[in-house]
Design brief:
Length: 368
Amino acid sequence: MVIPITISIIFLSNSNKFTNLDVDLYFNGDNAYTYVEDQLNINTTHYRTPGTQGREDCAKYFVSKFQEIDPSINYTLHNFTIHSIGCQNVLFKMNENFTNILILGAHYDSRARATKDSVNQNSPVPGANDGASGSAVLIEHAKVLYNRRQNLSVQIWFLFFDAEDQGDDYSHGILGWNWCEGSTKFVQDIENFYDSSKEHFDAMILLDMVGGANLKFISEQHSTSSLMTELFETGRELGYTSQFPSDPIINSITDDHVPFVNYGIPSADLIINFWDNPAWPYHHTTEDIMSHISNYSLEVTGKTVEQFIYNNYLETNDQFQGYFPWNDDFNLPESDLLTLIIIILPIIGIASVLLIIRSKLIKAKYSV
């Protein structure tokens, strides 16, 4: 997972708190845990590093798991090349009869070098949390949602990104790659994957590092704030107040949702504090392994997103009022924030001067 950049001063808005739809949730954290373990066991030499057999076998693993759900499920292998290395995003579609699309995304590549490891900086990262956890949640979501697909009024994409995690980390670059190569390439080619004359995107939800022990999500500031707020409130209403705190850490993360935000799709990144977190200090080290993965963290993430989908797309639902279509975004880019400050401060100054003058005039009037 990539390095955070500048901290924003914009907080989550929760002024219009809602109540979740009363519906049974079936996401199983034990199943998701098994899918994380499966990914780590595919190749224990290079794990899922781009350009390796492990990466190729992991993509085939996704296809096999989705074909267990439905042998005829529609999937696309999106091939691209970075520095002469072949890479591959994997896209599965469900409920294609609907023209509105919800994207659930996660990256599945593991980092080629453990650049934050104090001993083994040249060793590959197993990547249990970063990012096998998000990929595992997507597989379990597909199983659960498939059984209710006929009651959901949305097309769902399950999108697995390659080549997210190979960028520069504390001056230790890998092959000169950038972060989020796979998602960037996918959005560049996105017109090839849907009919823009008939279909449209409702939202994109990215799951990154969602399975580690001591799960606590941050307020990620590139995310569309109304969408992020709804996900946080959904989780809190389920009782996950520690994982979705009312005073979350605030930061801006360059992650796979950013190309989708830039494309105009409301997007949210469910991610933890990975840069300064004593409760989970294994980021980009060889200790990102199964012993630091929590069934409960996976279940919290999975059930929250499952509930979010039912809240908004269960056809029998005529009660829930959330923030759809998630157009409101209170997280201003820094350039816009600076512009706003430049505009507002003089106005405040002028208003203050006028108030002082008015006060003096009134005082002078009554002192005569």
